[in-house]
Every structure is written in C-alpha cells, then in structure tokens.
Amino acid sequence: MKDELPKRIPEPEFCSPEQTNYFFKSNKNADMNTVGKFVSEFLAKTCPSFQGGRVLDLGCGSAALSVCIALHYPGTKVVAVDGCPLMFGAATGLVRKLGMTNRVNVKKAHIPYDDIEEKPHSFDLVFSRSSLHQFRSSMDFWRTAKHYIKPDGNLFVFDFIRPKTKDEAREWVGRRTLPSSPKHHRDAYYSSILAGHRPLEVVSQLKKIGFPGKITIQKTDPIHMVVWK
Asked: In 3D, which of 129, 131, 156, 130 has the Cα closest to residue 215?
C-alpha cells in the first residue's frame, strides 16, 4: 500500500469555539466513573510503579482526567495545563464545581516549558491524553515532558497513530463518530488523525532529545498508541 501520508499534517493548536462548545456539551453529563476507568484500567495497569505524587497533565482539556487521577491516587496533586482560553475556562469551572481546587491546579500556559513555571524534574508522572497531535512542534512537547519529569518518574502519553491513507482516516472517523455528529466535529476528528504520529517517529524524537529511562510504545488499536515508562 502506498504511503499517502509520509508526514503529519498539523492542525490548529486550539479548537475553534464551536468545536470546544460541542466537546463540552457532549461531555457535560459524562459519568466521571466512566472517565475514571481510563485511569483505573489503563494508566494504573500501564504504570503500576506510579502510586501517587505530583502529576503534570499536558493539554488537559476539560481536566476531567486530571480530577480522576487525583481521586484515584489519594494525596496526589495535579498541575493541569492547557493553552486554549476556552479549555482553561471550562477546566477551571469543572475543578471548582467538583471541589477539587486543593488537588488540581489548572494553568493556562503554553509550551515550551518556560511558560508553565514549575520546578524542573519535580513531577512523578507526566500525563497526556489525545494532546500530542495538537502541538505543531512535537519536539517541544517531549522537551517539556523531559524538563519536568523526575529521573525515575513515569510517563504516559496516549495519542493518535497516523494511517497510510486518507481513506483509512475517513473510515475511522465513520467508526468513531455518530452519523448525527456535526460536520465540524467529524472534520476535527479527521484532522486529528492526520496530525498523528507513528511509533517509529516517536522513538526517533525521544532518542534525539535523550529522554531518560526505558520507553515502551504500544498500539492499542490501528490508530492509537500509548507511550509510557
């Protein structure tokens, strides 16, 4: 099969207002227990050595997962970072609503790391779900993670794998979105897949910056992977 997508096609780093509003409308009534399953059934099993501490969530979105991490690991404190003003506002609102402001600190910040204003190598876990593809510079993302993770800290990054053809990408959009979904939502999902990375690209990026520790990359399905240590 010919590789039609040898390079990723970057998408806008921030969602449009209509995309953000749709995202939060569709997740407004989401069961936090369901969201928490990603933490208890995926993160906990992938990184069993992580038993709590300081967590940096890069590209936190609504901060629902940040909250779930704090709830799953008693005593854990999370710094939840997002550069999108709309996401920051929604995340701040959710954390306040759930009474988690003492455990989850939401920050509006951009990478590279200078803007986050935390101590270097001070986090026990650097976490990110479905955010790597949104950064125009994936190297800045990895440099930020390296800057803040403890030498023996855990890493968990879940994101898209770019397929070889646009037809494959469209097929996955059809599988993962409802026919009733607005066009801008389907278009955004399609763009996200095209902006994804491939495992060997991630290996090369981490090697280039000298990311510490043994990294494992596992495909969870044809268009998703988890990078962890």
From this structure: 156
